[in-house]
Amino acid sequence: MLMSNYEKIKTDVSHISQLTKQLAKDDPRRIVHSIKVGFAITLVSLFFYFDPLYEGLGMNAMWAVLTVVVVFEFSVGATLGKGVNRGLATIIGGMSGFGAHRLSSLSGDKLEPFFLGFSVFITAGVTTFMRFFPKVKARFDYGLLVFILTFCLICVSGYRDDQVIDMAHRRITTILIGSSTAVIVCLIICPVWAGTDLHNLVSTNILTLSLFFQGFGIEYFKTSLDITPSDDEIEDNKSSLQAIKSVLNSKNNIDTLLNYARWEFRHGRFKKGHPWTQYQKIGELVRNCACRAEALHSFLYSQGQAPNEVKAKFLEPCMKMSTESGNCLSELSMAIKKMNKPSKAKPHLQNAKQAVQNLNVLLTANIWKNLNLSDVTPVATVA
Amino acid sequence: MLMSNYEKIKTDVSHISQLTKQLAKDDPRRIVHSIKVGFAITLVSLFFYFDPLYEGLGMNAMWAVLTVVVVFEFSVGATLGKGVNRGLATIIGGMSGFGAHRLSSLSGDKLEPFFLGFSVFITAGVTTFMRFFPKVKARFDYGLLVFILTFCLICVSGYRDDQVIDMAHRRITTILIGSSTAVIVCLIICPVWAGTDLHNLVSTNILTLSLFFQGFGIEYFKTSLDITPSDDEIEDNKSSLQAIKSVLNSKNNIDTLLNYARWEFRHGRFKKGHPWTQYQKIGELVRNCACRAEALHSFLYSQGQAPNEVKAKFLEPCMKMSTESGNCLSELSMAIKKMNKPSKAKPHLQNAKQAVQNLNVLLTANIWKNLNLSDVTPVATVA
């Protein structure tokens, strides 16, 4: 019993360590990020260690630590967004809280608690509802949360303490210190730009599609070409379907990265006013295309396979169409990655269109024509 | 100039008020939620108003307000998850922070700051890396954040104050008070269950598909049937494509609701051990099916329309197949909604299969057969 428990723990530990290695290998920036967070928090903790600063800020210094822990995110855009949100919301919340506190103190000792309670209730309720607006949610969700927080703390604790201004001032200072520490550390040590990630994600998605189309012709016609699939190929095929699925489900990821990228200023090849929203549109088209790719893929394994002699007839134009669409997409992906004009993609697109026309001549009502035509359409739109 | 500014503000205000009405109309629970949040925060602020409690908890009472603001979420599952995360993480973080503080104080006055800094650095780094594990992230992301926070605050502020235990104790008490207030208010006043939302979302998605298939046959054959589409129908068609798109992009939504639903205990028709993960699988199948529906839809408007006489031949079995698939899906959706066995769906499925076979007899290599067969497959799998 004891032995089996010991064995179980052993396998669990080795499983976790394997997973850890995998996570670190998939994206080494994760380790750097962890070190950065540790460093920033340790740095801010110095405010507690050194006497003069501690005397000035008092117990409020812990807000600086808290801010770093909460604001520090993986990418520069996310950290900047949260930092700005937190900073601004604290200032506005602090001032409104002070205003509410002042107003309610005019109403006399007896009425004051009711007045304060009422203003807290209204502010919290209205601000919470504002968080449901989609545009507000995308950019200022965190700011509204911090606004409620600061407002309530200043407004309510002011009832106890007459030094409200002092308290508000300290809170704002410490939070600004915390936010700027987080942003600076995030920026200086190996910065991770959400914009670059978004850019790479979109071009990788197109590359995934291109690999699918390049392989699809061979996969479908292998029985005619007398190729028996090796185990490796079956494995490849499975992973290509998995990749298509991940492209299909990339919407949320793209939207999040886009929100972060909007907070980022110019860096590297990304100038100010970079057309970030275009990535969303390309992402949409790529997902449409992936949708068709998935439908094609499932068609591959559906019951109704055409007989070999029929297949042989369509072999050449279909192969060409599939390969050329793939090549075209791969050129597009390269062009996006390098930010060139996709001039190399055009001949491939024309070849693919030519192949479609050849097929059209060959047949009037054939599945390939219709299906692949709709695959080529998004490609043409992107180009 | 002044007038035009005034006009602009006027239109902006009317636009915002319209948007607000729309948001409230789409889901009236949003208003209830806002009122609940306001109520809970006001309730917790009472801890500041009443003297005895304030004496006991001191400035730490603001942690209770802070906790309510941060923990209160839209659904019961989300609130419970955050509350439990925050409560547990505070207890564990507080104890570890106290331990680290104790250990480092043994090392003597000079070494103490270094020792403390080192333990903060290691804890923050390791915990941040743990947040990258997908399974941990799904359920305990917030808990890990709070753990870092509490650990650092207790560990570092302990350097200043010898009453660490007292501070840790107060922090834990206030946070437990805040968490439980949030959870109780969220549970008692019109609770919103993530599980119910998930259930409805999945059945609505199936319904969307069924409407699409029911309408698709008529849409495609309308030229043969001599129906000219009215403006309403074109509008319907656009909104049906929009609905299909929203089904395709529902993955993230389903995953989030599933995570929340796991935190919820039994309620209404949802017993303990309800097979929540099944919704994820159904969601996956529905998305696959929606993918094909989208491909079919774009085929509708692609260039290569078959001539009317060809269409007329396939009219009957195709119409039947499309309508029966739609009916079958709609029965499935009803069955899920009411938690019945989908017995009514079976005859429709058989009719659809029969229609597919009729088509198979009619043709050997026809687009309809292959495409719709793959549409029917997921339906069969669900049933």
Structural class of chain A: mainly alpha
Biggest interface: chains and residue counts?
Answer: A-B, 74 and 74 residues
Segments of chain A where pLDDT lies below 50 for 5+ residues? 363-383
Question: What's the quaternary structure here?
Answer: homodimer
Number of E strands of chain A: 0
User: Which radius of gyration of chain A do the C-alpha atoms yield?
Assistant: 29 Å
Shape of chain A: elongated
Distance between the termini of chain A: 65 Å
Q: Helix count of chain A?
A: 15
Please bin the fraction of helical residues of chain A. over 70%
Beta-strand level of the residues of chain A, as a percent range? under 5%
Order of helical and strand elements of chain A: HHHHHHHHHHHHHHH
- Average pLDDT over all residues of chain A: 74
State the major sheet of chain A: none
Descriptive overview:
- 2 copies of one chain form a homodimer.
- Chain A is an all-alpha fold and 383 residues long.
- Helix content of chain A is 81%, strand content 0%.
- Chain A contains 15 helices and no strands.
- Chain A has helices at residues 2-26, 29-49, 51-57, 61-71, 76-106, 112-130, 134-157, 164-188, 194-221, 231-248, 251-263, 276-300, 308-338, 345-362, 367-382.
- The longest helix of chain A has 31 residues, at 76-106.
- Chain A starts with a helix and ends with a helix.
- At the A-B interface, α1, α2, α4, α6 and α7 of A face α1, α2, α4, α6 and α7 of B.
